[in-house]
Design brief:
- It comes from Streptococcus rubneri.
- Pfam families: DUF7716.
- By secondary structure, the chain is an alpha+beta fold.
- The protein has one domain (about 5-105).
- The chain is built from four helices and six strands; from the N terminus they run βαββββαβαα.
- The strands form two sheets. Strands 1-3-2-6 form a four-stranded antiparallel sheet. Strands 4-5 form a two-stranded antiparallel sheet.
- A hairpin with a 2-residue loop joins strand 4 (about 50) and strand 5 (about 55).
Length: about 110
Amino acid sequence: MRKHQELSLEQIIEQMRVDKLSSDDFCLYAKEYGELRLNSLYWVSDYPDVVEDRDVYPTDVAEQGLQLIYYGEQLIDVLAAALEEKPDASPQDLVEALKYYHQHDSFMPFEP
């Protein structure tokens, strides 16, 4: 995924589905942590560096005062697991899977 751009969660999900994203070398950031929404915009940038046990955010993130929303590795894993279990999952189903993972630290089970 191209970094240093603002995308909606719907665009990110679509890009993951179409391009079969395998590179998880990105993070999602936003001005404030709120409920994940399809039409909300998120800044795509680099992972924070860890210096002396502290996260040091990328310059573009720090300058905009953004907060970490999702690590790329987790986002790709959650979306891939959801699509494996439910290949016809709607974008909103995938948002629900992301929310579930964030709250429970486990993958959301889909009803058969």
